Amino acid sequence: MTTYRIQSLWSLRDEMKAVARGERPAPADAARPSFNSVEAVVRLLTPENRALLAMIRDKKPQSVAELVQLSGRSQPNLTRTLAKLEAAGFVRMKSLGRRKVPSVAVRKIVVEIDPYSTHDQLRVA
């Protein structure tokens, strides 16, 4: 299970400045997606986007155009949503010639909320 960081934008900024100044090395998970709050994850995983992820998992569309037909969403809207889900690490986009083929990159998302601090965690399987 992969752990994603939940880190405030201020904390991320301070970390990046310290790395740039050479005060500390870049964290090992710096290239992985991170979220600034649990709420950001919840906003991304709307019921519509969860249904879209299930559709990609179950129907295995062979192109974004096919997913447009399956979902009934407009192509620009769907492309924006897929870009957000890809940036979050929930979807992979594979290029086959001129086609882009979406596939799900996660099976389960577990959010651990620490009620006494801001050290929440997001684990993805």
3D architecture notes:
The protein is an alpha+beta fold and 125 residues long. It has one domain: Arc Repressor Mutant, subunit A (Orthogonal Bundle). Helix content is 42%, strand content 22%. The protein contains five helices and six strands. The chain has helices at 9-20, 38-44, 47-59, 64-71, 75-87; strands at residues 2-6, 34-35, 91-96, 99-104, 109-112, 121-124. It has a four-stranded mixed β-sheet. Strand 1 (2-6), helix 1 (9-20) and strand 2 form a beta-alpha-beta unit. The longest helix is centred in the middle third of the chain and has 13 residues, at 47-59. The radius of gyration is 17 Å and the shape is elongated. The protein starts with a strand and ends with a strand.
Please give the alpha-carbon distance between the first and last residues: 5 Å
Q: Label the structural class.
A: alpha+beta
Number of domains: 1
Overall 3D geometry?
elongated
CATH-defined topology: Arc Repressor Mutant, subunit A
Give the uncertain stretches in residue-range form. none
Q: Tally the beta strands.
A: 6
**Rounded mean pLDDT score:** 87
CATH architecture name? Orthogonal Bundle
What order do the helices and strands follow? Answer: EHEHHHHEEEE
The proportion of residues forming helix, as a percent range, comes to 40-55%
Q: What about the largest sheet?
A: 4 strands, mixed
Number of helices: 5
Strand content: 15-25%
The Rg value, from CA coordinates, equals 17 Å
Spatial order of the strands forming the largest sheet: 2-1-6-5
CATH hierarchy class name: Mainly Alpha
CATH superfamily: Winged helix-like DNA-binding domain superfamily/Winged helix DNA-binding domain
